[in-house]
Structures are given as C-alpha cells and as structure tokens.
Amino acid sequence: MTALPAGVPVVSAADIERAMTPAAAVDAVAAALRSGLDVEADHERIFAPLTAGDFLLMPSESPDAAGIKVATIAPANTLLGLPKISAWYLLFDRETLQPTAIVDGTRLTTLRTPAVTAVAVRGLLAADPRGARRRIDRLAVLGSGPQAIEHVATLAAVLPVGDVAIIGRTPERVEHAVATLRGRGIDARAGALADARDADVVVTATSSSTPILDLDDVAPGVVVAAVGAHGLDHRELGADLMRAADVVVEARASAARESGNLAGAAAGGASLAEPANLVELVAGRVSRRPGAPAVYTGVGMAWEDLAVVQGIMEVMRRGSASEETT
After folding, report:
1. What is this structure's pTM?
2. What's the confidence (pLDDT) of residue 4?
3. I need a labelling partner for 306 at 20 to 30 A (CA). Which of 31, 108, 244, 246 fits?
C-alpha cells in the first residue's frame, strides 16, 4: 500500500488480494444484508454517457463510512483484451467527510460482484423446495472474461462445486478461462449451450445486449444468476425464462431503474410477480415453487462496494496494528 502526499492510503489490486479472499467478501456482503441495511433506500447510481461507453458514479453511506465508486464501462474493450469496467473507489469518514482511502475499483468490482452473486445463489439453493442444497454438482457459465472466472472461483470458495463448463464465443478466451480456473484447482472445461440444460446453476456474465438464455435452455428447478447486462436496453435472459421464474433482485427500486432482464420480460404489458430482494432472501423469507426456475438478476449497487471496502480496510488496519506491536 502506498500513500498520497496528504497521507491518504492508496490500496492497490495486490493489496486487495492480500487483504480479502472471495469467501471473506461473501461474508462481508451477507453481514451487511443482515445488519438492518435498507437496500431499497440506497443511493441511485448516476450514469453519464461517453463516446466509448459510460461514466458511472456509485455513492453510498453506512453507519461508519461514506464512499463513492467512479467507474467507466466500455463494452467494446472486451474485443481489445481490455477490462470492460475500470474504476477507483474513494472512501471517506462518515462524520467529517474527509478522505480516508483510495481503492483500486477494478479489482474491487471483480471481487464484490461475484460475492453478491454467491450470496444470492447460496440463498436460492438453500430455498430449494426439494430440500436445502449445499453444493453445486454442475455449473455452467456463459462468458469467459474476468467476471466469469471470478464467479466460478467465488462460488467454489463457499460451496462444493463439481463439473464447471465455460461457454463463450471466442475459443481463445474460453481456453484462457479454463486454464486459469484449473490453475486454481477447479475442474473446468470448455462447454456448449447444451451444458446449461443439465446444470444445477447457470451464471451469465456476458456483454450481450440480447437474450442468450431462455426457458428451453435450462432444467426445471435450476438457479440462474444473470450479472452481465447493464441498463434497460440490455438483457441476457429471455422473457419466457423471466416470466416462469421465482425472481430475486438486489433491490426492487434499483431493478426497476436498471434491469433489462425485468424490463424485457414486462414488455407489451406482460404481468410479472414482484421480485424478492436480497435482504428477504438472506433472512429466509423467500419461497420457491416446485419445478420453477429461480433467477437472480443483478445490476450492481453502491452499498455492495462500500461493504467490501470496509472489510478490506478493517483487515488492513488489523494488520498494521499487529505489525506495530511486534
């Protein structure tokens, strides 16, 4: 960790790696949801269009801190071998609003997004009407970029995971994702869309703006987590799947503003049941229907980044205090 001249620490991606494991990030997200957090009242994200994509500002406040993530979203970057999302996170003292840290927001995003997904998937598996499930025998992932890789790694950090199929349009990227996951001890392989039909859990983490997965592509009772689409005009899941599913979102307010999966399913005046939110899921207040798919569709919320950043900074503070006493 380095520091600016004013003494504000700069937390690098390497610092994040040392301070927080994927499992610890999952714990931080779950703890925030159990703390009395009102996800429906979290600040709205602010989008500003750019020629190559969007600026995204994500402010939030907790009882102990305030923070904002400043990010860019450049969809075409995936074709250039560059990150789709680049970001920095600015952390402030809640009472004085003085800066306390600057955190690499790109690595933060690839840590917290799968952590939130893992909380949702774990909760939906536990709510299976056939009996609570504590493992994933077959995992299919549509997408082969950093989020796809980190979603597999995070799910495997909190649940036993068997066969993993990586499904993507670019063989070289799929091969890289498979090799990366195998290097982490995960049984991954290149797959095809047919693998989604046999999977217990399907994750979509793509840059597609049109549906890539629908009801006929998945098994009855499957858990689907869709995390790649951004904005009302982009969706990864078909209307039939969304209409047939028990749906969970981070918050109903943010999903109504930003979820293309929900907006696409409601097009033409179609009636959709009100989705549950993550607080309700973690509290065990979500019931699933026998045979129905369960869908978690996430858009990303500011409270998630703040929860994980606070966890990172607490670990780093404990480490610094330990060094001072030795």
Report:
1. 0.94
2. 59
3. 246
